[in-house]
Each structure stands twice: as C-alpha cells, then as structure tokens.
Design brief:
CATH class: Mainly Beta
CATH architecture: Beta Barrel
Structural class: mainly beta
Radius of gyration: 22 Å
CATH topology: Porin
Number of domains: 1
Number of strands: 20
Number of helices: 3
Shape: globular
Largest sheet: 18 strands, mixed
Order of helices and strands: HEEEEEEEEEEEEEEEEEEHHEE
Helix content: under 10%
Length: 379
C-alpha cells in the first residue's frame, strides 16, 4: 500500500505543477443511491437455509463525492470517493456481535489523470483507477465491465492504463493494461477493518480493442484480451487468451447486434482451458408512439465444462464481466456451482443458454418501465 500512496502523491504533485502555467478549472459533485434488497432463498433455493445463508432484507446506501481539475483542455485529474454502508432490517446480522449495520470502508472509487492529444497527435492516455462504463466502455460489457465484482455495484473500477489512438473519425484502437487485486492494496482506505474482497484472486490483463464505424449504419469491434488469474484455494493459476468481435447494424429504428468470442489457455497444473460465448439480439424502437415503446429479442450462448474431459475445462470465462448482465438475481444462485472458478463472488456467467424477450415504455425523459422474460438452459 505504501507504494500506492507514494504513486498517488507523485501524480498529484506532477499534475498540480501545471497550475503554474495554465488557468485551472474545477468541477465537483456528489451522488446518493438508496436501494432495498430482499434475498428470499436466493442463494441455495432452500426454504430452511443454514445460519450463514439466512434470508436477508437490507438497505444499501451508496454515497459518492467527486472532483475534477482541468489544467488545460487536454490535461485533467479526476478523483471520486465512495462508501456503501448496509443496514439489515431482517434476521440476518453482519457479524457475531449481532450488529445490523455494516459500516463499510471509504474507498478511492476513481483516481486518474487524463492526457489528450499527446504531442499534438490523435492519441489520448488515461492512467489510474477508472471505470469502463458509458462512453469509456467496451461494447455491451460482455467481457470488460466490472473490475470489482466482489463489492456488487458499489464500484466498477479497474486499476488500469489506457492508450487510445484515434486513427480517423469513427475509427480508434485502444491498448489497455489492467492490474486488479483481491482486496484493495494499491490505495489507502478508511475503516480498513471492513475491507471487502473484490475478486477471487489477483488479476492482470492486456487488451487490444478496435472500434470501427463502417458507413452510417454498421459498427465492427474486433478485440484480443489476455488475462492472468492468480491461484486461490485449490484453483491453480490461469493464463487465458480471448479473441472475438462485436457487430451492430442499425437502420429505420431497427437494431441488430451480436458478439462472439473464443477462448484458449492453460492452468499452471497443465490443464487446458477453452470456451466459446456470444449473443445475438434484434430490437426496435417506436419513438413517435405514446410511451415510446421498444422491444428486444435475443439469444445468449456460454459454453459449459464437460465433466468427462478431465484434462480440459471447456467452460466460458466471463473475464472482467462478472456482473448482472442478463439477470439481477440468478447470479446469486450460481455461486455454489461456480465457486471453484470464481470464489464466493456472484456473476460468473458460464454453462448457459438464454432465450430472452424484453420491452420498455417511457413515461418521461427520466422515467420508464422495463420488463423481461428469460428462459434458461445449460450447455
């Protein structure tokens, strides 16, 4: 952690040095999210669960504050602090003392520096703790979405360095290096006694991701991802390659999108790891009709492990996307099945066939209602 503190301090000194030569602009804000969750037989589907798997009814209070300093139009620094205490109103307690309140830790949710148009070239560089969401994201988040799955939706950050080469308008190439730890060891936290497990093990990754707009209606995004998952428990170290592509076609308010990837690699024990995964969806929006309805139909395929092949693991690895991509609650039911590969962390999507139909209506610009039906099977 000392190295992380020194690195952060050095970065701050370097960035604030720019104030001597430029007019500094600042921006800041905060957010608060209140969510109630009810877990009724959600993990084991058992009406008489063990003491450690009691049903839960609790509030999550996520509180964040952020600030941004722009030294020039191309150089800026951003940081965000977050905490998410939980209060139990059911029979479950957070510890042996019977406490209802999980005070949580105060974390550096984001802390990074941006350098754009480096040396006048169409190259941008971001280094530090950052999210891959929204305009900074990669496709649907099929493989790159959440670097901290162990804390739920408290945070999504990656400790990463990302270089973007804007080749032409609508065409770019990203190079990303990721280093995420099982618990937060790079930066200090307040109330470290409540330090959360963020991943099953220490993880590293290297990503090459190309975004290409072809004509007015078609986008193609090929990519390569190399990931290292350190050993944990009885699970040996894994080195895994993933090659895939995402494609989106939109015309006349119709959207057709799909993605497919193949995985290959090896555990330190000598066991091979392979997998295939992808999805295909078609949808339409009706913005001129009352409530602006829209619908989407799709299919998801994630390969499963064949238990008869002891020297090979064919199950899909979601890499950095252990999140409620396809369903909010089924991810908890999957924990017992995937604990050998993912540890006690939900969202390890694998061995699954999903047929999904969904729709949405909008009551206002900021208010809507979404509903979906999924039929699930195994590979």
């Amino acid at each position: 952690m000392k190295k992380g503190v020194l690195l952060a301090a050095s970065l701050l000194v370097l960035l604030f040095a720019f104030t001597v030569y430029a007019e500094v602009k600042t921006d800041f804000g905060s957010s608060f999210r209140l969510r109630q969750e009810v877990w009724d037989n959600v993990v084991a589907l058992d009406t008489l669960p063990s003491a450690s798997a009691k049903d839960r009814d609790f509030f999550r209070l996520r509180i964040s504050g952020w600030g941004k300093v722009s030294f020039t139009k191309d150089i800026s620094f951003y940081t965000k602090l977050t905490t998410e205490p939980k209060y139990q109103i059911g029979s479950y307690r957070v510890n042996a003392k019977g406490d209802k309140l999980d005070e949580d830790e105060l974390i550096f949710d984001n802390i990074y520096a941006d350098f754009k148009n480096i040396f006048g070239a169409p190259v941008d560089f971001r280094i530090g703790r950052q999210d891959f969401l929204g305009p900074d994201g990669f496709g649907e988040g099929f493989l790159l979405l959440d670097g901290t799955p162990g804390d739920g939706s408290r945070s999504f950050y990656f400790n990463a360095a990302k270089l973007t080469w804007r080749i032409t308008k609508g065409n770019s190439l990203d190079f990303v290096y990721i280093t995420d730890t099982q618990t937060d060891t790079y930066l200090p936290v307040l109330h470290p006694g409540n330090k959360k497990q963020l991943t099953a093990s220490n993880e590293k990754g290297f990503v090459v991701y190309s975004k290409n707009k072809i004509g007015d209606n078609f986008n193609l995004e090929p990519y390569y991802i190399y990931k290292i998952e350190d050993s944990f428990g009885a699970t040996p170290k894994l080195k895994l390659n993933t090659i895939g592509a995402r494609a989106v076609f939109s015309q006349n308010r119709w959207t057709v999108k799909g993605e497919f990837a193949h995985q290959f690699g090896e555990y330190d024990s000598g066991r091979d790891r392979t997998g295939n995964g992808g999805y295909f969806f078609v949808g339409r929006k009706y913005p001129d009709i009352t409530l602006k309805p829209e619908f989407e139909l799709g299919f998801v395929y994630l390969s499963g492990d064949d238990p008869s092949t002891r020297n090979k693991h064919e199950g899909w690895n979601p890499l950095f996307s252990r999140a409620p991509n396809w369903n909010e609650l089924i991810i908890y039911t999957m924990i017992n099945e995937t604990i050998r590969d993912a540890g006690p962390i939900p969202g390890y999507w694998t061995n699954m066939l999903i047929y999904k139909a969904g729709g949405k209506v909008s009551f206002s610009e900021n208010t809507g209602l979404s509903a979906a039906y999924s039929y699930l099977g195994a590979d």
